[in-house]
Structure formats: structure tokens, C-alpha cells
User: Which sequence fits this backbone?
């Protein structure tokens, strides 16, 4: 039987990396580190959750997969400017992001 993990962050939440100048919007959560460049594992057993996000670093957009322990909530209130956000997420009334009801091609 697999152990259930509770995600600390949500789809559409803007986050930042705890060490590097990177901000992003989460679009997927995964328990598998297969797509991540994870470095050292946290503690014994499972490494935790990984978040896929539309990220920007010095205004260069890319898709990242980062371990939960390396992320913090972003409190800046600034939007994330990434060309792929509109395909999966839309901006809500409060300026946050949420999943699109219909995906764009």
C-alpha cells in the first residue's frame, strides 16, 4: 500500500525557489521524482512531492520540476510572465491563477 501525501502548495499558486531567483505558477503535482533534477534526497524513505511549474528566471521562461522542500510561497503579488500559462491556467477575479475549464490548444 502506498502512503498518501498532502500537497503543501496548490495548482495555480505562485511560488518561488528558496535558494535561487526563480518564480513560477504550479500546474501539476507529482509524487515521482522522475522528471526532476532533485539533488540530495530529504530524510529516509520517499523524497516528497514534486511540483511542475511555468517558471521564469531573469525573464527567461521555462518549465521546471522542483521538490516541495525547495519551494516557498511568493508574497510579491506580481504576475508570472510565461507564454505557456494561458494554455492550462486562467487569471481569476483576484489576479490569481486557476485551471481553465476548457484547455487551449
Assistant:
Amino acid at each position: 500500500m502506498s502512503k498518501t501525501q498532502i500537497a503543501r502548495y496548490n495548482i495555480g499558486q505562485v511560488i518561488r525557489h528558496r535558494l535561487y531567483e526563480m518564480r513560477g505558477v504550479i500546474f501539476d503535482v507529482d509524487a515521482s521524482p522522475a522528471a526532476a533534477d532533485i539533488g540530495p534526497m530529504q530524510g529516509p524513505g520517499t523524497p516528497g512531492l514534486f511540483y511542475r511549474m511555468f517558471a521564469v528566471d531573469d525573464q527567461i521562461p521555462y518549465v521546471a520540476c522542483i521538490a516541495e522542500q525547495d519551494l516557498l510561497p511568493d508574497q510579491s503579488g506580481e504576475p508570472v510572465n510565461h507564454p505557456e500559462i494561458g494554455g492550462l491556467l486562467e487569471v481569476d477575479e483576484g489576479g490569481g491563477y486557476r485551471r481553465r475549464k476548457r484547455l487551449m490548444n
